[in-house]
């Protein structure tokens, strides 16, 4: 499956997206009482992004699937990444940060250029799936191999 890629041209597109998003959020949050049911929308992550060139922004959405016990070799991402766990659990560690496990419904943020020494399915019996939303301001590969480091994902 190829990733969904969205290109933005200039700050006008960003402003339009922000206004449309806030209008959509207002409509969702004011859509009447839903007593006894779950929220229709919830914020799972809000994070400031690094300084970006607004004239060259590109958002790319990638679906990542790990089979039970599967893991990736050490790598990094040149762009900021926001992840959302759809199914199962993801075990991850980026250099300088503690190892973390995220489960379905949770989100995470990765700053640009951090080396993933661990990126793995946290379960040996169930598959995991997450959506990675990359925000880049230049043409660059989404992932870059890193020199193998201690803790390549196997545990």
How would you explain this protein's 3D organization?
With 155 residues, this protein is mainly beta. The model is unreliable at 1-34 and 149-155 (pLDDT under 50). The chain is built from one helix and ten strands, in the order βαβββββββββ. The strands form two sheets. A five-stranded antiparallel sheet has the order 1-2-9-4-7, with no helix packed on it. Helix content is 13%, strand content 35%. The protein has a domain at 4-9 and 48-145: Jelly Rolls. Strand 5 and strand 6 form a beta hairpin.
Features of the shown structure:
5-stranded antiparallel beta sheet; disordered C terminus; mainly beta; Jelly Rolls; 155 residues; 13% helix
The name of the CATH superfamily of the domain at 4-9 and 48-145 reads Jelly Rolls
- CATH class category label of the domain at 4-9 and 48-145: Mainly Beta
Give the proportion of residues in helices: 10-25%
Order of helices and strands: EHEEEEEEEEE
DSSP E strands, number: 10
Strand content: 35-45%
Counting helices, strands and paired strands, the structural category is mainly beta
Task: State mean pLDDT (0 to 100 scale).
Answer: 77
Largest sheet: 5 strands, antiparallel
Specify the overall morphology.
globular
Gyration radius, in Å: 17 Å
Alpha-carbon distance between the two ends: 29 Å
Low-confidence stretches: 1-34, 149-155
């Amino acid at each position: 499956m190829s990733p969904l890629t969205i290109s933005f041209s200039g700050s006008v597109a960003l402003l339009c997206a922000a206004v449309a998003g806030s209008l959509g959020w207002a409509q969702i949050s004011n859509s009447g009482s839903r007593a006894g049911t779950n929220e229709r929308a919830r914020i799972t992550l809000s994070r400031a992004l690094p300084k970006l060139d607004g004239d060259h922004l590109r958002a790319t959405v990638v679906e990542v699937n790990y089979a039970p016990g599967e893991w990736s070799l050490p790598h990094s991402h040149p762009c900021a990444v926001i992840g959302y766990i759809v199914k199962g659990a993801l075990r991850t560690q980026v250099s300088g940060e503690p190892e973390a496990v995220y489960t379905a419904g949770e989100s995470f943020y990765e700053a640009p250029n951090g080396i993933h020494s661990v990126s793995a399915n946290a379960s040996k019996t169930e598959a995991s799936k997450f959506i990675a939303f990359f925000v880049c301001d230049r043409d660059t590969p989404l992932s870059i191999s890193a020199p193998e480091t201690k803790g390549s994902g196997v545990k």
